[in-house]
Structure formats: structure tokens, C-alpha cells
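Table 4 source record.
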Amino acid sequence: MAFEIQPTEGLIVYLHSLKHSRNLRSFGRLYYVSKRMRYALLYVNLTQEDEVIKKLTAQNYVKQVVPSHLNELLSKVADNDSNGQDDDDRFDEDFEN
């Protein structure tokens, strides 16, 4: 039996009160809770993302659920790195005497 990495999606969940932040563990992997800004970062399986968003928005202690765009950003950065030139060499040429 081989170990397979499942693709995940981050969800930013804004809460009315932090008392209920522990309840978020039942929806996915609770990664971070901000006390000052009253939000939590939750990772869920990509296949279950829509279901979890619907369940979370139905909870009375949740203000808003926003999907994180980190995966999209990482793929764009990876595409830019694979495209081309080494920017470090150009940077060094600008500052040579």
C-alpha cells in the first residue's frame, strides 16, 4: 500500500467568536487561529471543498468563508521559474563597477 499525497485547499474562516475555533477541527485540519483578527486557516481535501464550505457557512458562528489562493500563486511562481533566465546574473551585472 503506497502513501499518496492528497491535494488540499486552504480555507480562511472568519469567526464571530473564537470560542468555536475548536469546532473547526471536525471540518478539516486546523492550521492557524488569529486571536486579534478572529479568523482561522483550515486545510481540507480538494474533493470535499465545496461540501465543507456549505457546511461552514451554515454554522451560526461563522461570518465568512474565503478560499485561499496560495496554490494558484505557487503554480504561477513555479511556471515563471521554469520559463527562463537566471535573474541573479542580471542583477549582479547591474551593480558591477
